[in-house]
Amino acid sequence: MRTPGKQRLRNAVYGLYERRLARSLSPDRMPRHIGVIIDGNRRWARASGDPVSRGHEAGASKISEFLDWCDEVGVKVVTVWMLSTDNLTRPADELEPLLRIIEQTVEELAAVGGRRIHPVGALDLLPSATAEVLKSAETATQHVDGLLVNVAVGYGGRRELADAVRSLLLEEAAKGISIEELAERVDVEHIAEHLYTKGQPDPDLVIRTSGEQRLGGFLLWQSALSEFYFCEALWPDFRHVDFLRAIRSYAQRERRFGV
């Protein structure tokens, strides 16, 4: 067990390191768009002997803090994966409290001010109450000139691609064009125009917590040229210094954009 004196010393050293790390970052090497896979809430709760819902609550609290950090370094867009399409198959006794936590979190993010909320996901797969909260948050913040926050709820990368192609085909078919002409319109540019994140820059950096080194279907199309950073910390334990290390790692890389 750490003594109070040792703890104070540790905090002082940590604070000094954090400030030095922050000063070392170059403003012109910051990502415009960060995607974050918030993983590890359930493991965090179980490690403490708490119910799973406590982990989701702790993880939800971390989101606002993370967005503040992004604001501080000049990030323009953040995509937060809060619930996947696969998560919708979880037992009701876990899923229902999680949906309530998500609803409360989105409402709080919209009420803070300075952030524009944009839902990304298959809202038709969600309970009507959850979908309505997401839509209301988007409407309430649509004219906000600030950090754009994509809240990915009921999101799956494969589902997004299927929805994009379906939307493209329906749009073109409504014009009465032939199958041959329709086939010619199914290209990279036109599919991109029908993604959930249409009109936004693709993520420069994708962060995943909890030590898992996989995307799991997150922004499959948009992350083709992204940089990735995998952190061992469980999401509720993700610290400002972990965030700064992710930014530093990104800034030190030579991005080739597939060339």
Automatic annotation (TrEMBL):
One term of GO molecular function: transferase activity
Signal peptide positions are none
Tell me which cofactor or cofactors this protein depends on. Answer: Mg(2+)
Question: Which residues does the record give as Mg(2+) binding sites?
Answer: D39, E227
Binding site residues for substrate: G40, N41, R42, R43, W44, H56, S84, T85, D86, R90, R208
Where would one find coiled-coil regions in this protein? none
**InterPro entries noted in UniProt:** UPP_synth-like, UPP_synth-like_sf
> Which CDD domains is this protein grouped with?
Cis_IPPS
Q: Which UniProt keywords apply?
A: Magnesium, Metal-binding, Transferase
Q: Which SUPFAM superfamilies match?
A: Undecaprenyl diphosphate synthase
Record-linked Gene3D superfamilies: Decaprenyl diphosphate synthase-like (3.40.1180.10)
- Report the EC number(s), separated by commas if there are several: 2.5.1.-
Q: How is the cofactor bound?
A: Binds 2 magnesium ions per subunit.
Source domain of life: Bacteria
Q: What does this protein do?
A: Catalyzes the condensation of isopentenyl diphosphate (IPP) with allylic pyrophosphates generating different type of terpenoids.
How is this protein organized at the quaternary level? Homodimer.
Task: Tell me its family.
Answer: Belongs to the UPP synthase family. Z-FPP synthase subfamily.
User: Can you say what this protein is called?
Assistant: Isoprenyl transferase
Question: What is the native source organism of this protein?
Answer: Kribbella lupini
